[in-house]
Fold this protein.
Amino acid sequence: MDMEILLEFKQGMLQSNSTFSNWHEGNKGGICSWRGISCNSKRQVVSIHLSSVDLDDALVGTLTPRLGQLSYLSELDLSFNKITGQIPTTLGNCSSLTELNLRGNQLTGHIPATLGQLQNLTELWLSDNFLSGSIPSSVGNCSKLQFLNLENNTLTGSISPSLGKLKKLERLSLLKNNLEGLIPITLGNLSRLTFLDMSDNLLYGPLPGSFAGLRRLKWLGLSRNYFLNGSIPSDVMVGMPSLTHLELHYNNFTGNIPMFNASSPVVLLRLDVNSLTGSIPHSITEIKALQQLHLNKNYLDGSIPKGISQLDRLETLDLSDNYLRNEVPPLDKCTNLGYLDLHGNSIRSKMPTFGACTNLVYLDLSTNEFQGEISSRLGNCSKLKVVNFAQNNFTGEVRLDLSNLTSLVFFVICNNMLSGTISVKSLNSTYLRVVDYSRNHFTGEIPQETCSWSGIMILSFAYNKLFGQIPACITNLIWLQILDLSNNKLIGQLPGKLWKFQGFKGNTSGDLNLGIYTGVQLNLVITVNGARLQFDRTTIVVSNNMTSLDISSNSLEGVIPEEIGQLVGLMHLNLSHNQFTGAIPLNLSSLKKLQSLDLSWNMLQGRIPNEFGELPLSAFNVSFNNLSGLVPTAYNINTRFPLAFQGNKNLCGFPLSPCGHATKDQEHPASHKSWEKDFLFHEASVWAFGCASRFQGHRKSGRLPLITKPAESYILFLKSAGVITFHCIVQPTRRYPDLEHISLANPFIIYARRYKLHLPSAFVSLMGAAAFAQELFLFHWHSTDCWHERTLSYASTAHGDCLYVLKPHGSVCATESQCRDDKVFNVNYIIFHGIWLLQLSLLLVFPSMFLPLRLFVTTSGSENLVSQSKVMGTLLFSFFVGGTK
């Protein structure tokens, strides 16, 4: 009968498999000579071993229920095949079965409750399938069970307390399922247990105190359940004296880190990504066997224990993203240290010492308050692949001999106060992929040696004081995908042969794989279109997912090379705030992946290609150039980016002035000339209080720029239809010392200028509020009948500076009869000047702070130069000019 069952089993499998080549009745040796079959002395089948590990081809098919009729079967191993379907419930009839191994298949359905009948079963391996449902409580009846592995399925429900009856159980693995509920306290009865892993489930609640009885337990894994909470009892840790691996990361445990025995054999301790508080206990530093310590992403404070420097077996130390401070103890004796991550703390210390550091591969000190110079001894760490010192207070020149760092992949020292020239002669690793010197005080030219980094993918020298030309050989860095040279003092033209950039075409030399440890993660911050994009603790894979070319805020000149249009994989292009001339290359419209394009504040001429509307742009700006012609309308680009076209006096069409229409003075009704005088008067008054510092003015077409001394605060003004009005106070910062120019859409063309003042905050606040209320009132009056669909809009610069303006839409009044009568107008006129008197009274409160000043007031095409020693005289003169013109 065993032959019939085996032939039926064969029938359920793909017949082309060579495994069954001798499975036929004509085999003279009988079934006991068939491949994978073993028999007892009575020629009864006792084992089937057909794991794909031992086969030429994996089995494909389903299991026949008749396998349950092999009454003498003691071992069934069909692991790592491609068997589908359900586990036959009839297997529960194989009373002699001691080992059932079906792991690594594609089985579905529930775990049969009949398996609980297998009283002789010692090993049950059902992992790595697609089994669902709950763990049957009947499994607790398999009293001889020693190994139970159900990991990596889709099991649900709670963990049955009946598992606590398996007194002989040595290994229990339930990880990577969807099990939920509390951890049964009965598991603490499994006194022979050496391995327990229930990670990657949905378990919640505290760690059972009964675990203190698991004295043989070596491995405890409860990571990534996310909802396990409460404190970690110290008596539980003390009660597991054999523990070598403790993984409780990615949960919500609170309280202090538990105490450990000095004789604890713990090799791996992972308590990261919890809500632990307090300081790092000294008892951890007494675990001499400790090799990996992960306490990152908690709320730990205090200092790093000095005793940690005595852990000579330590290989990994991750204390990042806490609130640690003070000095870092010397790590000279940690000669096996390969991974050190202290980023995201408040450590105020000099750079730690590492001794020989011959095994150090990963070093991240970023986002702290490290001070002093970068130690030149870093050059001795010959195996280093990652160096990240970003966002600290390092000073001085970088005097590093990196010639020994031939495996270096990631070198980031941005956001410090480093100075001197950029010296990269010794930085010659062929594996180099990321280099970031940005946001420091480096001077000099971009080194020619940079061009030797043939595999570089991310390069940033932004926000320094570099001068000279961009090296022509930079196009040798063909795999570049992010290049940021913005905010320097570079001159000359863009280099030729831009077509050589393969990375900007979407071609890559392979993903950036640091290859240090599995799952190495880094911080990456890049600037795109003025906004900082941070990839926070995510594995860096630089492929065609991000490409950016930013050379903005320099003094580059010449035409924009048409070769840029060949960089078809480019997603972000910023050439703004330079001196580029000529036309916008039409083939920029070939950049079909372009998401942001900024060509503003140059001297570009000609038309804006209508084809730009077809690009998938989320940011677009060509303002403040010398562009002409019609504003493009394809795919509503003019309405999607209404601020993108200002400052081009020869452009017309929505959202700018209509082409060929009359000027604003001609369009407004004659009876309302008086409100323009109010605006002009208002312009003079606000200019007066806004220029409290000594300055020298001069005329420039269409604007009123000032040259001032440095100051402590900025005030933002708007020039609108002859009005300059205070709107917002912003404080300069170390990172953003300047404000960008802003423009808003017609009908009121608004220019934002920055003026540096020394004013008491109370004065500024009161004066600003009055001026803002004044203009808002005027806008409200003038728009009530003459403008339609007015809306209050909000705009901001890239750095978060506020700006409010009432933005009307629609057409102006056609006739005088459509506007308010003169009586109402006069009332508004009186209220308007009442608000101005409030401003005047505020000026009298601070009479001593105003210094001699010079002022231009432009009214209806005429220019009046006002030169007075006190601002009151300026105001009176300004009022006279505004009221008589």
